Amino acid sequence: MALRGGGLVAIPTETVYGLAANIFDERAVRRIFRVKGRPADNPLIVHVSGWRQAVALLQDIPDGAEELARRFWPGPLTLVLPRNASVLDCVTSGLDTVAVRMPRHPLALACIRAAGVPLAAPSANRSGGPSPTTAEHVWQEMRGRIDAVVDGGASRVGIESTVLDLTAAAPRILRPGAVTAEELSAVLGRPVRHARGTLRRPSAPGMKYAHYAPATPLLLVTSEAPSRHERTRRIAIVRRSRGERIGLLAPAAYSGIPHDAMYSLGRGRPVDYARGLYDGLRSLDAARLDRILCPGLPPDGIGLAVMNRLLKAATRCM
Ligand code: TXA
Ligand code: MG
Fold this sequence. Notes:
By secondary structure, the protein is of the alpha/beta class. The protein has helices at residues 26-36, 51-55, 65-72, 89-92, 106-115, 135-142, 181-188, 225-241, 270-285, 302-313, and strands at residues 9-11, 18-22, 45-47, 77-82, 97-101, 119-120, 148-149, 162-165, 172-175, 193-194, 218-221, 246-250, 261-264, 291-295, 316-317. Threonylcarbamoyladenylate binds at residues 13, 15-16, 18, 42-45, 76, 78, 80, 92, 95, 97-99, 101, 103, 121-123, 160-161, 163, 174-175.
């Protein structure tokens, strides 16, 4: 198959689509960085078909790692662990740790098993933009640059995995996802913190790399629940009266607010936000709007992961 011969294949996972290559093929791994326009100092996640395949890449495995894998794999949890010499520097950007995860999507697992090697796979988008959650998203962006796309339908979770660093003195979530700090800490039996800045908007020019951002400016409405709807309505009305074309990325209950385009986040539960977020940003981006308005969420459970992405994608919060 293409992966064994050094090809790049986009594969579906339950979180987002990944752009996969054989982790032992340096040329193929370098090609991932080129095709994505990804800075070489941003390491890749290695996808495995089970704990045993991960262990072959690791050394000095910290306490709790295997328990977490047993509890949450296959699933949206990535573990950062000390690596051994078998892992290429280009995969980990020279770090002495490696990020590993076992995805849940049956086609992802089938690809890893068929390749017979772990697969390095970042999200299959151009660096900086929203991650892809359908084969169509990947195709629109990557056509002609990669060897194949495996179509596994829409990603069920919709946002990237939780990245947990187990190599420091205390376990730390580097990127929040569907597996929450509370769930992790219940298994580890000790507190799990979030990295600083998880719920902060990167100060525009100072931030190192743009993330998840649509081309259309995104305005995040962060006021508390009772007034959030009214606030969004007012902003939409004022902006439209100035001639701006406004897109709404919001729960169905917001559809009465004047708009030029809307992507419905259904019932507006945190899981609905997660599932619709990137598809919504992409489809509103295609609608020639001046601004996208999105009401925020309380940062609880997977809502924290959603707000982490929205805060990074937003040009402004109100
Ligand atoms: O859900 C996901 O994790 C998806 C699917 C395809 O599995 N993948 C994904 O990959 O989101 P990517 O490359 O877009 O994000 C990987 C994140 C980056 O923030 C990267 O910096 C971090 O994981 N990472 C990778 N290796 C690391 C390491 N050794 N230490 C710390 N962070 C690491
Ligand atoms: Mg990514």
